[in-house]
From TrEMBL:
Keywords: Cell inner membrane, Cell membrane, Membrane, Signal, Transport. It is found in: Endomembrane system. Pfam families: NMT1_2 (PF13379). The lineage of its organism: Bacteria, Pseudomonadati, Pseudomonadota, Betaproteobacteria, Burkholderiales. This is ABC-type nitrate/sulfonate/bicarbonate transporter, periplasmic ligand binding protein. GO terms for cellular component: endomembrane system.
Length: 373
């Protein structure tokens, strides 16, 4: 029985977000009141860090959030924090993240040094920040460093700081680089503290990034509300497909309540990814729904990386975990009601080191890596 036309059990939702350009769907949904036609209202709740997003999701202070894909899985698995059953309702965007190195390191790479040579030339362990221990930025950074022959846990001091503090830390000399979302790479570059040396779409082209996350009991108790929220976010993501709309939301995102960063530093990398750099694939929010389906194989990939880096050794069925977290049935109901096509369950992705992941032979994929913790 299809229940997508049923009234939401909850009509006012508090949504958490961190000050990043890819929070755009939440901003669009709230500012344009897109939830009205689905029976909900949205209150945006800016959070200072991903740890704050985690804690307020678990305490119920926020109902759902714009969240790192890997944050959801870290909480589900109890890695580096409290464990709770979590839900990924949909993917909010693909691509749109980057790695910035300090100017001396970026200059060395530009001059022909390999990433490994440039980092070793410091004569000490480089300090490179990411935003959450199990988050997407940590996994992109680790994968990129390993692909360049640098062990991300032994050769580098990897630290966690909120994305809003990245540029300041680079300016102060506390960091040698960082992996995070925009607009903080644009900010660091504008302040002449560093330069973007890689885009995460070079690591995994069209990788999943932020998701719409909630506790699993919220989705179970309020399924109509969850579907209404997915419908609302799909509308917001579709609106963002137009270039003029991205320019419009970039201006709105500059407000102190959202990002608090000048539009001139938000718009270029939101409208034309990488500020026009040909290496960067565009940040994608919708593409007729191809972006948004919460593929189980995408979530499963994060678990392979936790095992790769010694963060997880539990004897559990990783595929079953991913299938329980990613709410594919709920998403299908919402997408069906909106007339949005459902893409295939698997997609093959070729990474920067030539390895291919399609969610099939996870054990064989993991066994192919020769760098472990």
């Amino acid at each position: 029985m299809n229940t997508t036309s049923s009234q939401p059990e909850r009509t006012h939702l508090r949504l958490g977000f961190v000050a990043l350009s890819d929070a755009a769907p939440l901003a669009v949904a709230a500012l344009r009141d897109l939830g009205a036609c689905h029976g909900i209202t949205i209150e945006l709740c800016r959070q200072p860090s991903w740890a704050a997003v985690r804690d307020k999701l678990l305490s119920g202070e926020i109902d759902a959030a714009h969240a790192l894909y890997g944050l959801v899985y870290g909480v589900q698995l109890g890695i580096g924090g409290p464990r709770a059953d979590m839900a990924v309702l949909m993917v909010l965007n693909r691509n749109g993240q980057a790695i910035t190195l300090s100017r001396p390191l970026a200059d060395a790479v530009d001059a022909g040094a390999s990433v490994k040579e440039a980092l070793l030339a410091l004569g000490r362990r480089p300090v490179i920040a990411q935003t959450f221990p199990t988050g997407t930025h940590a996994m992109w950074l680790y994968y990129w460093l390993a692909a360049h022959g640098v062990h991300p846990l032994r050769d580098v001091e990897s630290i966690v700081i909120p994305p809003t503090r990245m540029a300041d830390a680079l300016v102060d000399g506390a960091l040698d680089g960082f992996c995070a979302g925009e607009p903080w790479h644009a900010v660091a570059q504008a302040r002449e503290a560093g330069r973007t040396v890689a885009y995460t779409s070079e690591i995994w082209p069209d990788h999943p990034e932020k998701v719409l996350a909630c506790r699993r009991d919220f989705a179970a108790l309020y399924p109509n509300t969850a579907r209404a929220l997915v419908r609302t976010m799909l509308d917001a993501c579709a609106w963002l497909d137009a270039k003029t709309h991205r320019e419009e939301i970039a201006q709105a995102l500059s407000s102190p309540e959202l990002l608090g960063v000048p539009t001139a530093l938000i718009a270029p990398r939101l409208v034309a990814s990488g500020d026009g750099d040909a290496r960067a694939l565009p940040v994608r929010f919708f593409d007729d729904g191809a972006v948004n389906y919460p593929r189980v194989s995408d979530g499963h990939w994060f678990i392979t990386q936790y095992r790769r880096w010694g963060m997880l050794d539990a004897d559990i069925d990783d595929g079953d975990i991913a299938a329980s977290v990613n709410q594919t049935a709920l998403y299908r109901d919402a997408a069906w009601a909106a007339g949005i096509a459902i893409p295939g369950e698997r997609r093959a992705a070729t990474f920067c080191d030539g390895r291919v992941w399609d969610g099939g032979d996870a054990a064989g994929y993991l066994a192919g890596f020769d760098m472990h913790a």
